Amino acid sequence: MKSCCFTGHRDLPREAVNAIQGPLARQIEAFIAEGIVHFYAGGALGFDFLAEQAVLKAREQYPQIRLILALPYKGHDQVWKEEIRSNYQRLIEKNADEILYISDHYFRGCMQKRNHYMVDHSDVCLSYLVYPKGGTKYTVTYCQKKGIPVMNLAQFIL
């Protein structure tokens, strides 16, 4: 089965959130038309959350697709505000087709290990990369080293 992973920044300005949603939904539909059925997301706030919502929305029309959450460790959301955590669990975790935990507990490098897992199980990566450093940049670089094509939505929005 063909698969896609997502990577993007956690902190997104409101105007970026609004600008991302349409192109994100269209690209997910284009990937589905190309035969991609598995979508890996990392369970972070920001771009991951937008991508997870977009996959769940697309699944209404394309029931064959699957949202797979690759979470860095159990309880990764405990540092979030209660309202955000509750909404995330209600909207995303309860509707995901599969939830994978990379570890039972936090350890230094667990986010990177989660990102490697998603890339290693994907045929393409859909990113939102605007900052030249950080986890998103590292994940895109890892994709490039592995020969995984990366489509950066920021190129179509900014």
In short:
This protein has a single domain, classed as Rossmann fold. The chain is built from six helices and six strands; from the N terminus they run E-H-E-H-E-H-E-H-E-H-E-H.
What does this protein look like?
This protein has helices spanning 14-33, 47-61, 82-93, 110-120, 135-146, 154-157; strands at 2-8, 36-41, 66-71, 98-101, 124-128, 150-152. It is an alpha/beta fold and 158 residues long. Strands 4-3-2-1-5-6 form a 6-stranded parallel β-sheet. The mean pLDDT is 94.
Proportion of residues in helical segments: 40-55%
Q: Cα-atom Rg, whole angstroms? A: 14 Å
Strand order across the largest sheet? 4-3-2-1-5-6
- Assembly classification: single chain
Element-by-element helix/strand order: EHEHEHEHEHEH
Classified by CATH, the class is Alpha Beta
β-sheet strand percentage: 15-25%
Summed over residues and divided by their number, the pLDDT gives a mean of 94
Distance between the termini: 32 Å
Please summarize the sheet with the most strands: 6 strands, parallel
Secondary structure layout:
Layout: E1 2-8, H1 14-33, E2 36-41, H2 47-61, E3 66-71, H3 82-93, E4 98-101, H4 110-120, E5 124-128, H5 135-146, E6 150-152, H6 154-157
